[in-house]
Amino acid sequence: MRQQTGVGMVEILVALLVLAIGVLGYAGLQLSALKGSESAQIRAQATALARDALERILVNEAARPLYLDRDEWGVDQRSFGDAPPMDCYDNTCTSAEVAAWDIEELAWQAGNLLPAGRIQVQACGGITSCVVVAWHDQDIDDCISNGQIAADEGTECVVMEAAR
């Protein structure tokens, strides 16, 4: 009777199958980590943009009603091209002119820094206003409904409240 001295073809195929399943699982984890990293980067950028908007509103207190007027912001994505020009560097501008430029600049930044990004200031209950930044296919009006901020897992927007 002969004894087996090597590894059989079946053992090799089973080992390769186990290895392939492990490699595919690792690749799936890598893909999931990349998606999570991209989502975190977009949320961080949106948060910084919303904070920038709040700071601009606080700095230009005289034009606060313009910033808080939802109709001034629009809902369309604006991106690409050069940033909106500002003539206030060499000339004297009113608070309203600075506010109009700030709104154009923030909308331009949202469109260029975020995928299909939009920014808007909305009323979000009582005396509170909210800076809303949305991206991808998220409808900016769905970020706040009936005074409640959307907190679903698939929500692709950042909302910052500004009360004064």
- The helix content, as a percent range, equals 40-55%
* Global structural class: alpha+beta
Sheet with the most strands, sense and barrel status = 3 strands, antiparallel
Question: What proportion of the residues form beta strands (DSSP E)?
Answer: 5-15%
Strand order of the largest sheet: 1-2-5
Task: Spell the H/E element sequence.
Answer: HHHHEEEEE
What's the number of helices? 4
Question: Could you name the ranges where pLDDT drops below 50 across 5 or more consecutive residues?
Answer: none
Computed CA radius of gyration, to the nearest angstrom: 26 Å
Overall mean pLDDT score? 85
Shape assignment? elongated
Distance between the termini: 93 Å
Protein name: Type IV pilus modification protein PilV
Keywords: Membrane, Transmembrane, Transmembrane helix
Domain Type IV pilin Tt1218-like: 29-103
InterPro entries: Pilus_4_PilV (IPR013362), Tt1218-like_dom (IPR054402)
Can you give me a brief rundown of this structure?
The chain has 164 residues and is an alpha+beta fold. The protein has helices spanning 9-59, 64-67, 70-73, 95-113; strands at residues 118-123, 128-134, 144-145, 148-149, 157-163.
Describe the structure.
48% of the residues lie in helices and 15% in strands. It has 164 residues and is of the alpha+beta class. The strands form 2 sheets. Strands 1-2-5 form a 3-stranded antiparallel beta sheet, with helices on one face. Strands 3-4 form a two-stranded antiparallel ribbon.
